[in-house]
Predict the structure.
Amino acid sequence: MNKLSLIASALAVLGLTACEKTFVDDIEDVANGQVTNSLLQVRTRAGGAGSDDATVAYPVTVYVFSGDECKAAQTIGDEGQTLNIALTEGTYSVFAVGGASSTDYVLPSASDALTTSAITLREGKSHGDLMAAKATVTLADGEANTVTLGMERRTMLLQSVVMKKIPTAATAVSVSVSPLWKSLTVGGNYAGVDGSYSLSLEKQSDGRTWMLPSLSGSEEGLVLLPPSSSPASITVRITTPSGTRSYTYSTSNELEAGYKINIEGTYTEAVGVSLTGTIEGATWLGERTIRFDFNESGSSTTDPSDPTQPNDPTNPTSDFPAAGDTYQGCYVLASVVASDGESAELTLLSPNEKKSTGAYNENMTLTQLESLASDLGTDGISGWRPMTRSEALLLQAAHIALGISDDHYYLFVDNETVMQMLMSNGTSGNPSSGTAYIRPVVTVTINNE
C-alpha cells in the first residue's frame, strides 16, 4: 500500500465527513528508514467542571514534541477545524495555547520551539483570553489516534473599576496591579515574574466618580495574567494640585486565573479610600466574593456600607466582618456580633492546608490531627485547631466559593473522633486510605476600636 493510501484508510476509519475542515502534514520519509505513516488527530473542547457557556478561545496553536524536539506546530482557526498530523510511531507530548493570534503575539515556530519558550505580546498589544492544554499520546506503526484537548483559562478579567466620591479637585485617578506574570509558555506555564498593569480612570459627569473606560469586544474588561506571587498589590493613586497620594491593598489569593474581578472604591476625607472588591467565578469555577477596605491606617476587611449586612438584632452593627468576608488573610466561616454591638466572635478558616493519604490518613489519631492543624495556621493568630462537625458543614456550604473541588474530603473532629466529610454533599464517615485534607480553624474575638 502506498503512503497516500495509508492516510486515506486512516481517515476512513475515523469517519471524517466531507464538510469537516482538516489539515494534514506532508508525508515524508525520515531517518533510520521510518515513515510518517501514523496519524495524530487533534480536537479541542472547553475544559473545567463543565458548562454549556464554556468556550474555547481561538486560534489554538498546537505544538507536538518528541522528547525535547518539536516535531510540528499547527493552528486551529475555529471550532470547525481539526488537525491531522502525520508522524512516525512513538510517544509524543501535545501542547496547545488558545487565544494567542500571530497578530498580537510572537509565536515560536516548530523549528525553534521549546516547552519553555515564551509566547510574548507584540508591542502595543493587550492580552487576549489565553487558554492552555496538554496531553501525552503514543502512536503505533500505522495507527490513527485522536486526542481531544480540554482548554482551561489562564487569564483573569478585570471587568469593572469604579472610584466614588473622589474630591472634585482631583485631576487624575489610576489603579495598578502588580506583580503579574508577563507571558505564557508553549508548555502552558507562566513566565516573567515582574509584570504590572496600570490603568487610568475616566472622570464621569457628576465630577466625583471615576471609572474604567468602556472597552469593545465580546467581554468588556481588561484581560490580565494573574499575579506571579502572593501577596499581590492593588494600588490606587489620586492626583490633586497639591500632589499625588497612593493607597495600597495587599491581596492573598483574591486574584486568580479564571475569575472576573470587579473593584469598587469610595473615598472619604477622614480615612482615605475604602475599596470593595468582588470576584465572580468564570463558568466552571463557581463564584467568590471578597470584601476589603484600605486607608491611611492600613487595610482590613470591614465594609460599613455593605448592604448585605442588615441592622437587625442578630447583626446590630455592620462594622465587623461577616461570614464570607476575609479577615487578616483568612476566610470568615462564621461571625456572631454581641448584642451590644461592641464585639464579634469570628470563626476563621486558615488559607493553608495539608494533604493526608494512604494508611496515615486512615489511621489518623486526634493527637496527630491537632498537631498538624496547629502548624497550618497563619502568623499573628494563635490557637489553630481541627474543625468540628458544624464547622466542617460551614466549609462544605462555602466550598464552591472557596474554589474547593466537590470530590475533596476534609478531616474534622466529632466527640474526640477523627472523621472526614465529602465536599459535594456533606456526608461524613471514618477516614479511608484515600486522600483527605487538613485545614485548621480558630475562634477569635474582635472589639470596636
